[in-house]
Design goal:
The protein is an alpha+beta fold and 114 residues long. 54% of the residues lie in helices and 19% in strands.
Length: 114
């Protein structure tokens, strides 16, 4: 079993490559405003749990997740090829609302300053 250090390295590489693939290679317009905020690998490196931040309304978020799930095979193949992994991890996308929460808190703080 790979150690925690290797899992963290692979997770950060996947996050970096995922950003590049989403920006330059995926043609689906639904994933236009998607950004990977955190990647966590399973102990055996067979699964990657990816937290995705999507800007927009609820419908755009739903469409963005659907677009990512439909393109997951292509993304998985690209990442595996770029990183030279023996087995490509299965990608599991989940919505991350932390960016919106931070923006909301920032708005509240701005109101208190006035």
């Amino acid at each position: 079993m790979p150690g925690q250090r290797r899992r963290n390295r692979v997770a950060s590489q996947i996050q970096r490559e995922l950003g590049d693939v989403l920006l330059n290679n995926v043609k689906d317009p639904r994933v236009k405003f998607c950004c990977a905020t955190h990647v966590e690998m399973s102990p055996d490196l067979s699964y990657a749990n990816i937290q995705i931040s999507i800007l927009g309304n609820d419908q755009q978020k739903t469409d963005g997740l659907a677009g990512l799930k439909s393109a997951s095979g292509f993304i998985r193949r690209e990442i595996s090829h770029r990183l030279g992994l023996r087995t490509a991890p299965e990608l599991r996308f989940k919505l991350d609302a932390s960016v919106e929460q931070l923006m909301y808190i920032d708005q509240l703080l701005e109101k208190n300053r006035e």
